[in-house]
Design goal:
The complex is a heterotrimer of chains A (90), B (416) and C (979). Chain A has 90 residues and is mainly beta. In chain A, 10% of the residues lie in helices and 37% in strands. Chain A is built from 1 helix and 6 strands, in the order βββαβββ. Classes of the chains: A mainly beta (90), B alpha/beta (416), C alpha+beta (979). The interface between B and C is large, with 120 and 121 residues.
């Protein structure tokens, strides 16, 4: 598998630490209440098909990325920096 | 038909012509008391125990492919009950007891072989943790033996004791652990359930749920609508996808776990051994192949196949633990989809949809759980109450914080 | 001898001697072990897996199911090696396997007598009575009989490599299609890798005689290989099997660098596992012939027709003298012609098809006929054929069988591609979409002519070149054979008797019928129930045949039956190759702390701390055990001064205007109030509310912090901080960087610590100038360093850091000065004692399942701000009296021993899980107190101080009374560290 790191270019899977559903980007504040905290902490999109996932370029530039990848075929459709290009707040 | 010395002799003399089919191939009926989605080990065991323990036989098991197409036939066949969390250990202890009588119960040889499971450790800290786990097992009535380096050497002299990267400090041995023939478990439960009248319906994929007023009425399938009083999901590897059709969002991410088998070799490995630094576990099948695996690949996947980085890591750990296997050749690799929960432990519980029940989130450890999972899920489906061994496997434990985190890695599913 | 008088690509001028089962034999360079055995008249080479039936060489390639051998001696003995793939070398030692005492007389052949009993699924129906006999009696017997070859049982003395390679075009297979593809791409200037499992490139061209470019096809192959090897942009990799296709254009390949030699030359790996990353690839792996199932088709002497042709043409060997060919297709005719051209007797060409017109041959030609039986005990002596209603027996010693060809498309299925049935070819061909970037050409794509293969290889290369932005030269194609063989499918001959489908695992057509009748008719069920296709050849010759047989039983075509999945590896790959150098002691890198050279010189044993090696203790003459050293080291820390290397702790520099804001959000406590020159202890939670890590963070100046983490969590904490900065709060203006390896850091602890420091640093380290929890820059013998007044030991202590290049020197200096003051170096054992005496938690307590509440850190959890884990920690399950809380324990009997990992029970309680009160996580002998002490977690423990409970260890047989106490055993008020 090859991940197109926006900073480093295309790199092998082995340089990355995958971190699951990109929903983890959208952390609710403490005042959002326990339901929101539970949903954020535990409930995940887990589709068989195109998926947005977090990945940390741990053995590269240390960038956190949002990788769009098909979980059925492993086809990588793209990668963006998690805080910026991947619309950090949306 | 019962398998016995007599039936075997009769068939030997008649060219194997008198065996009955292991199960019927019925068309789905319009309505069942219970529908179980998923014809793997857990679903089939559930069907068997529904019939055996609760007398409920108007049951269909719906399988989208062939029986045992999923993780039941894709694992490394290890059976053990070496857990340390109070909510887990009674369940796996129950499972091991069921394994011990499974052949007689099912009249099917599942080749349960209690050849021992040895977990190696490599530091004082790990050794202390194994002591803790072993004591937890013993408090639950399970067998566990804590052994030091020299005892490990005596038990498994073929391990690497020189030029070690992580010297073996000792190990935790569960003598009653072992392996079973995974496919035979599926077939044994299927045949037994069928014999009580359970309909096993293959090539029948569930495509939706019919839910009215918050209660499930039946399922839409590729072979038409089928009504049901209760529906149980036992679809390891597809749990999120199936549950989504009922509007549920679960604390699960699906990951691929690879496994490997070598060419057949004359016996060299009598028991199951796990390495303590880097994930690696190995046993030898009755056919002679070394069966082994390691960690999940760490990325979400439904593709049932993995990639080279984890392949290499598994081989490296194997070559650290017992380099004498170096010239054995890997014959086949495969992948299973592990539904990883947020605490690494499974779920057997009701769902917010009335009449819809969930047995899932088995992570990479579902095979050994097969009998107890079927037992507990059948109990839940039949009585509406959690079985005493599975009370901790609640769906709401994540919200309440009563998590069962054996690895202590938190709500990050690919770290368990 | 069966060597033909002439012909073959072997060097007849040289002899190579080898042994087989102790017999001294000889062959020539260019031989495989299989061809050399046949040349020596060896027909019986092994026994089958289940029935131990005699087995002969069946193929000439990697699909071989029968001729599996142990090659080599001693620790280099390698089991299950296909003789058809072994390049003959001088002195080669081969042994048959799975037969006792020998293949000719194998006692296990009694299994064959029991064959009526041992049909498909037999095991599942029996061995259940009595219950206890499975493990004790049946299974050991089965295990002994099963298995194939033996591992040496010793560590492999050879080395293996992992390597990366990159190519514009990877060409897999060097037959006509592959050579042409490589040539086209090579001439275009592309970086090409051409890999082939064989030691001689050329594929079928080396085994055929139809002219190519007007000459023998092997000559064109050799010429083309020479052209390719002259191109700097082309890498030829013979003896290299591309075993798997992976995601993203990654291919796994294993090269037998020296694997064909008895022992690798010094410094040379035996095999190399290549990770080949290719922009594009062409699969030109050819096709594998399939047999026909007929009774007695397993006898030595029955072989694939193409294999017979290979032995005659490529190796100049006659596998038999009186040969019959049994075919359902035109390609079998070529084998008959090759037999006659070699001067052998063609007993008959038996073609199952009616109304075909084979070429004129000297031998008999019988069409519309089938073989219905064979004869011969350990090798073929004759066959029975049936033509219409007439049966006839022929004396033959070799029977060549062709049931058609299966494209070698395995790699196209590795990423989930499902091969499709081509009824015209009566074969599975690659699906339209399979592996991204992979094209298929030649026989692998179902193109069964040389001309078609050449054109297909060239076209595939041209397409790939266009994608790569290169111009294909469009080389002229040589003139070649262009006659696609016609075929009428024949799977199983209808006749009585056992007809084999899987030769190694002994699966017959009858087993398939039995399995189908017992409801195991789905291909995957069939495979798993009968073990069909699960032998070392993975069904390369048998699988499609089985599907044909199954289809015929159920009146369906193979396309309706479906197929099982091909998975990597294409052919078996050694574990050692995949692991490369990362075996044994080189499994993972070693991280050495800066003072380790000194520690080793002082005789300190090393212990594992993740990848780090750390000194356990420093032994001295006269010590009777490690405890003597440990007690001494604890003693001088408490009484004088000790020095310990703490460099392995994670160190992260955090800088920027918002660095303090970041710290506030990741620690439970407040750090934005931390002044420059001050240090604070902090606890970090995971988002789920459990404790993640703890440590100190020092403020070195405005917007400049250095955080320490536990050794184990250095990486995870950095990842977490980056996550916070980049993902959660990208608006924060701060950056962090790991400096763990950048600084060597030493704890200087004990009442004489200041005296030591005054000799080492230039600055004033008095309490006034440098109070508890102060930090600052210092000059250490002229080297700029950092000093932190922090204490893990509970003593008055500092940690002093210098750039790690000076670590060894500083360690030596500190050790010398400490010794001069009556102290010295202390290791991990003493460190552990000191921290337990002080009640400091480590990984034994912070194991990911404990909360700040459990550990008594609740007062450090700020209620004034949000921080990571605050919501998670508020969940009811993480709080409350039912949770076990951190306590200290001491034995009621001071002489009693505490055991980490033991459980707590109330007095009088039964030793069952329901009575458990918690567990003991850390223990040590306290030299200060003179007895053992421990830290652990007890239900509602903080409220139970003074209560006596039991420590029970069922594993080690201990049951003693212990008193619950505060977790601080020494200096609970902290006077020593300030004073």
């Amino acid at each position: 598998m090859r991940i197109p790191c926006p900073l480093c270019g295309e790199r092998d899977l082995r340089e990355f630490t995958p971190w699951g559903d990109a929903a983890l980007m959208h952390r609710p504040g403490f005042d959002a209440g326990p339901e929101a905290a539970h949903a954020y902490l535990h409930l995940r999109e887990n589709p068989a098909g195109p998926h947005r996932e977090l990945s940390y370029h741990e053995l590269g530039c240390a960038a956190w990325l949002v990788v769009t990848r098909n979980t059925l075929t492993h086809e990588v459709m793209g990668a963006a920096l998690a805080g910026e290009g991947a619309e950090g707040g949306a | 038909m019962r398998y016995s010395g007599l039936s075997i002799l009769r068939n030997a003399l008649s060219g194997q012509k008198h065996w009955a089919p292991a199960w019927r191939e019925p068309a789905p009926k319009p309505q069942y008391d219970v529908i179980i989605i998923g014809g793997g080990g857990h679903g089939l065991a559930t069907a068997w125990y529904l019939a055996r323990n609760h007398g409920i036989t108007n049951v269909a098991v719906l399988e989208r492919s062939y029986l045992g197409a999923g993780n039941s036939g894709r694992n490394t066949t290890i059976v053990r009950s070496n857990y340390h969390i109070a909510g887990n250990e009674p369940f796996y202890a129950h499972s091991l007891k069921l394994w011990e009588g499974l052949e007689q119960d099912l009249n099917y040889n599942v080749m349960m072989s209690q050849r021992g499971v040895l977990n190696l450790c490599h530091s004082d800290g790990q050794f202390d943790f194994y002591a803790r786990r072993g004591n937890a097992m013993r408090l639950h009535g399970e067998d566990a033996v804590l052994i030091d380096r020299e005892a490990v050497r005596g038990f498994a002299p073929y391990l690497n004791f020189r030029d070690e990267r992580f010297p073996i400090r000792g190990g935790l041995l569960q003598p009653r652990g072992g392996t079973a023939r995974h496919d035979a478990v599926v077939w044994g439960y299927a045949r037994a359930a069928d014999s009580r009248g359970v309909d096993l319906i293959q090539n029948c994929e569930v495509t939706g749920f019919r839910i009215e007023n918050g209660r499930v009425r039946g399922v839409e399938t590729t072979r038409g609508y089928i009504g049901a009083g209760k529906v149980g999901m036992a679809v390891a590897g597809r749990t999120s996808e199936v549950a989504r059709m009922a509007g549920l969002r679960l604390p699960i991410e699906s990951q691929v776990l690879q496994a490997f088998v070598t060419e057949g070799l004359k016996p060299l490995l009598p028991s199951v051994i796990t390495y303590g630094m880097g994930h690696f576990y190995i046993s030898q099948s009755d056919k002679g192949g070394l069966v082994f695996g390691g960690d999940i690949d760490f990325y979400n996947s439904y593709a049932a196949r993995g990639n080279l980085p984890m392949v290499e890591h598994v081989m490296e750990a194997g070559m650290a633990m017992m380099p004498m296997i170096g010239r054995a050749r890997v014959l086949r690799s495969w992948g299973g989809i592990a539904d990883m929960t947020m605490d690494g432990s499974p779920i057997i519980d009701r769902t917010p949809v009335e009449g819809l029940f969930l047995d899932g989130g088995w992570c990479y450890g579902g095979f050994k759980a097969t009998p107890a999972s079927g037992w507990a899920f059948a109990h839940l489906l039949a009585t509406g109450e959690s079985h005493e061994t599975a009370r901790a496997f609640r769906l709401d434990r994540f919200a309440t914080g009563h998590v069962l985190d054996e690895e202590g890695t938190g709500a990050q599913p690919n770290r368990h | 001898m069966s060597r033909l008088a002439s012909g073959g690509l072997v060097d007849r001028s040289r002899r190579l001697s080898f042994t087989f089962d102790g017999r001294r034999l000889s062959g020539h360079p260019g031989d495989t072990l299989a061809s050399a055995l046949l040349a020596n008249g060896v027909r019986l080479v092994g026994r089958s897996f289940k029935y131990h039936r005699p087995r002969g060489i069946f193929s000439a390639g990697s699909e071989e199911p029968n001729a599996l051998m142990e090659i080599g001696v001693g620790a280099r003995r390698t089991p299950n090696t296909r003789a058809t793939r072994v390049m003959l070398t001088e002195g080669l030692v081969a042994r048959s396997q799975n037969a006792w005492p020998s293949p000719a007389f194998d006692l296990m052949a009694v299994n064959d007598l029991a064959a009526p009993l041992l049909g498909a699924g037999f095991y599942y129906k029996t061995f259940m009575w009595p219950k206890s006999f499975w493990e004790r009696v049946y299974e050991p017997l089965i295990r002994r009989a099963a298995g194939l070859g033996r591992l040496a049982g010793q560590d492999d003395p050879d080395v293996y490599d992992q390597a990366f390679a990159h190519a514009d075009l990877l060409v897999i297979g060097a037959g006509p299609a592959g050579l042409m593809a490589a040539l086209e791409a090579g001439e275009a200037g592309a970086r090409v890798i051409l890999a082939d499992e064989d030691f001689t490139l050329g594929g079928r061209l080396n085994a055929e005689t139809a002219p190519l470019a007007g000459a023998a096809p092997h000559a064109w192959a050799a010429h083309t290989v020479a052209r390719l090897s002259a191109m700097p942009n082309v890498t030829l990799m013979p003896r290299t099997t591309v075993f798997g296709a992976y995601d993203g254009g990654m291919y796994g390949a294993v090269q037998e660098v020296a694997g064909h030699l008895a022992a690798p030359p010094e410094g040379c790996p035996r095999e190399t596992h290549w990770r080949i990353r290719a922009q594009a690839a062409v699969l030109c792996a050819g096709a594998i012939e399939r047999p026909v199932a007929f009774p007695g088709n397993d006898r030595p002497g029955v072989m694939l027709a193409s294999a017979l042709r290979s032995y005659i043409t490529r190796f100049g060997v006659a596998p038999g003298q009186r040969v019959a060919v049994f075919t359902n297709n035109d390609d079998g005719w070529r084998t008959a012609q090759a037999v006659e051209a070699a001067g052998l007797t063609l007993a008959a060409l038996i073609d199952s098809r009616e109304g075909v017109s084979p070429p004129t041959l000297s031998g008999r030609v019988i069409t519309g006929a089938v073989v219905t039986d064979t004869a011969g005990r350990r090798g073929l002596t004759g066959l029975t054929l049936r033509a219409g209603s007439r049966t006839e027996q022929l004396a033959v010693d070799c029977l060549a069988v062709s049931g058609g060809w299966n494209p070698t498309l395995h790699l196209t299925a590795h990423l989930g591609g499902r091969p499709e049935w081509d009824p015209g070819l009566a074969a599975f061909v690659p699906s339209a979409a399979h592996v991204p970037g992979l094209r298929v050409a030649g026989a692998a794509a179902g193109v069964f002519t040389t001309a078609g293969a050449l054109a297909g290889g060239q076209a595939a290369a041209a397409e790939a070149l266009a994608e790569l932005g290169r111009t294909a030269p469009g080389l002229p194609l040589p003139e070649a054979e262009d006659m696609p063989p016609r075929l009428t499918p024949l799977w199983a001959v209808p006749a009585r008797g056992r007809a084999w489908v899987d030769l190694q695992n002994d699966v017959t057509t009858k087993d398939i019928a039995t399995a189908r009748d017992e409801a195991f008719g789905a291909p995957e069920h069939l495979k798993r129930y009968t073990t069909l296709g699960m032998a070392t050849d993975q069904g390369k010759t048998g699988n499609v045949l089985a599907l044909g047989v199954l289809g015929a039983l159920t009146g369906r075509g193979p396309e309706e039956v479906g197929t099982t999945t091909f998975r990597p590896p294409y052919t078996p790959v050694t574990l050692a190759a995949l692991a490369g150098r990362h075996a044994r002691g080189a499994f993972q890198p070693v991280r050495e702390a800066p003072s380790n050279a000194l520690a080793r010189a002082r005789g300190a044993p090393m212990i594992e701390a993740g990848l780090w090696k750390r000194a356990a203790y420093f032994p001295q003459a006269g010590d009777t055990s490690w405890r003597d050293a440990c007690d001494r080291e604890v003693g001088f820390v408490r009484e004088a001064v000790g020095v310990s290397d703490v460099s392995t702790l994670g160190k992260i520099e955090i800088t920027g205007p918002d660095a303090a804001a970041l710290l506030d959000r990741v620690y439970t406590g407040t750090f934005s109030t931390l002044a420059p020159g001050r240090v604070r202890y902090g606890v970090m939670l995971r988002e789920d509310g459990f404790v993640f890590d703890d440590g100190t963070t020092a403020c070195l100046g405005p917007g400049h912090y250095v955080m320490t983490t536990t050794t184990a969590n250095a990486g995870p904490v950095l990842r977490h901080l980056e996550f916070c900065l980049q993902v959660l709060w990208p608006e924060l203006d701060a950056v962090c960087a790991s400096v763990t390896e950048g600084w060597a850091q030493f704890a200087v602890a004990g009442p004489k610590g200041r005296a030591l420091l005054e000799r080492v640093v230039a600055e004033d380290v008095s309490d006034a100038a440098f109070p508890f929890m102060a930090c600052g820059s210092v000059s250490v013998a002229g080297v700029p360093g950092r000093l932190f007044r922090i204490s893990f030991s509970g003593e008055r202590a500092w940690e002093i850091a210098v750039p790690s290049g000076h670590g060894d020197a500083l360690a030596r200096l500190l050790a010398e000065e400490a010794e001069a003051l009556g102290g010295g170096l202390y290791g991990m054992e003493a460190l552990n004692v000191l921290r337990i005496e002080k009640g400091h938690v480590t990984g034994a307590e912070l194991h990911g399942r404990t909360t700040a509440f459990d550990c008594g850190f609740a007062k450090m959890m700020s209620s004034k701000k949000d921080y990571i884990g605050r919501a998670g920690a508020a969940r009811p399950g993480l709080n409350g009296p039912e949770r076990a809380q951190l306590v200290g324990v001491k034995p009621v009997d001071p002489g009693a021993k505490l055991l980490a990992g033991a459980k707590f029970l109330n007095r009088g309680a039964e030793a069952v899980a329901a009575e458990e009160q918690g567990d003991l996580t850390s223990v040590c002998h306290s030299p200060v107190l003179g007895h053992m002490i421990g830290l652990g977690f007890v239900v509602n423990g903080r409220a139970r101080r003074g209560e006596v409970i039991r420590m029970v260890d069922l594993l080690r047989g201990a049951d003693i009374e212990v008193e619950i106490c505060a977790p601080h055993f020494v200096d609970p008020e902290g006077e020593r560290l300030r004073g």
